[in-house]
Specification:
Blueprint: E1 5-8, E2 11-13, E3 16-18, E4 23-24, E5 28-29, E6 34-36, E7 39-42, E8 46-49, H1 57-68, E9 75-77, H2 83-86, H3 89-95, E10 100-103, H4 105-114, E11 123-125, E12 131-133, E13 138-143, E14 153-157, E15 162-164, H5 186-189, H6 191-201, H7 206-217, E16 223-225, H8 237-247, E17 253-261, H9 266-280, E18 285-289, H10 295-304, E19 305-315, E20 318-319, H11 321-332, E21 338-345, H12 352-360, E22 366-374, H13 380-395
Parallel strand pairs: 8-9, 9-10, 10-11, 15-16, 17-18, 17-19, 19-21, 21-22
Antiparallel strand pairs: 1-2, 2-7, 3-6, 4-5, 7-8, 12-13, 13-14, 14-15, 19-20
Helix pairs in contact: 6-10, 7-8, 9-13, 10-11
Bound molecules: MU-OXO-diiron.
Length: 397
């Protein structure tokens, strides 16, 4: 038997999980794996929503075959051409040659760039507001450009009030038997991975996510079926509300995230002293060594917390390598609306503070509240400056 899941009457999950992948998209560690969701709707006509990644194509094709039974496959709705969802399109077309692809014009242009598909494949180009009847089920297509690529669309099925949301509302982490978010303790066990997924995958495109949320708010939605992670059938606000915050770049929590880069532990010590003072003032503070913690986790934390502190040694007359990479990544992800303080260290000429400030200053709605410059290690007068920096941060809440 194969592993398919019943989502609701006539709707099946026929996706697959990958727990062997080291780095999703070559950059995001996924120690807990990742799911590639694909959904099969068995109306009078049958429709498959997206396919899966190359790594799990075999399992997916078995699941699809079992899900269909004796039925033929009429439509493949391609909502997103990124290969983690579209890789198996050739296999599906080859196995079900009567199939009709349903996709946006941008998707049609893009799909031939990735795969050997041409005009001989039956296809329907859809645009915003177009519909497709499967008999008793009716699909509405909603364009969602840049959530996460330009060709993306999502699909609303009006009878079941289901939103097939492509990458939106997804999460890292393989599905371990449960398919619905309400079957697990999502907040405790999965919410951090949902945040890490959102912020790193679509964090840059807050305005476009806002646009999709506005379109979704006009729909009566009972269930959300994303392409990664759990299906939402209850308490949809638990995932929609954080998406609203994240896409507006509003912090989830008031508190401080300190990210530091330290060669011999002295910059780390300055960061530890600051963290200690902040807690003494009652300010929640978290710390990351940027040379140890994957950037994707720190980016997620930067979207969570209201105040950010970057502490870096000076290295080759610049910012320490791992800190420079982190700040580049944060700026690329459009971090904004944050209060920032800086600590630099340098044994002869300290430059990292100014350089970090210059790089972060391009972000929108950034307020700098203080900076301390250390020469090699924290001495008594610097302890005072760190105490003052802590007070400046506290006063900025
Ligand atoms: Fe999960 Fe943008 O693909």
């Amino acid at each position: 038997m194969h592993c398919i899941k019943n989502i609701s009457e006539n709707l099946l999950w026929v996706g697959a999980n990958d727990r062997r992948l080291a780095m999703f998209e070559g950059i995001y560690s996924v120690e807990r794996g990742v799911s590639y969701n694909s959904y099969l709707l068995l109306g009078e006509k049958t429709a498959l929503f997206d396919t899966v990644d190359k790594a799990v194509q075999g399992r997916f094709m078995e699941n699809l075959s079992q899900g269909l039974g004796e039925r033929k496959l009429d439509y493949l709705i391609l909502q997103h051409i990124e290969p983690d969802h579209s890789y198996a399109v050739e296999a599906v077309v080859n196995n079900y040659p009567d199939i009709t692809l349903v996709l946006s014009s941008k998707s049609w242009n893009m799909i031939s760039q990735f795969f050997n598909l041409d005009n001989s494949v039956k296809h329907i180009i859809v645009k915003e507001g177009d519909t497709l009847s499967l008999g008793s089920y009716k699909l509405h297509f909603i364009m969602a450009p840049m959530v996460h690529w330009p060709e993306v669309m999502v699909t609303y099925e009006e009878k079941t009030k289901t939103l097939f949301s492509a990458d939106a509302f997804g999460s890292f982490g393989a599905l371990n038997g449960a398919i619905f978010a309400d079957e697990v303790n999502f907040e405790r066990d999965y919410f951090d991975e949902a945040r890490r997924y959102y912020t790193n995958i679509v964090g840059k495109y807050g305005a476009q996510v806002q646009s999709l949320l506005n379109k979704a708010s006009a729909l009566d939605i009972n269930m959300i079926c994303p392409l990664h992670g759990f299906v939402w059938r209850k308490n949809l606000h638990e995932i929609i509300k954080p998406y609203t915050l994240w896409s507006k770049y509003e912090p989830e929590e008031q508190g401080v995230m300190i990210a530091y880069a330290s060669v011999y532990g002295n910059t780390e010590n300055a960061a530890e002293i600051l963290a200690s003072r902040l807690w003494e003032h009652g300010i929640k503070t978290v710390m990351f060594d940027v040379s140890v913690t994957p950037a994707s986790e720190i980016i997620a934390a930067a979207f969570k917390w209201s105040h950010l502190v970057f502490a870096s040694t000076t290295y080759n007359a610049g910012i320490f390598v791992t800190m420079e990479a982190l700040i580049y990544d944060l700026v690329a992800h459009n971090i904004q609306n944050r209060t920032i303080a800086l600590i630099e260290n340098g044994s002869w000429v300290a430059t990292s503070g100014k350089l970090m400030r210059d790089k972060l200053a391009v972000c929108k709605d950034i307020k700098f509240v203080g900076e301390v410059s250390i020469k090699s290690s924290v001495k008594a007068e610097k302890l005072e400056e760190l105490n003052t920096l802590a007070k400046e941060i506290v006063n900025s809440f």
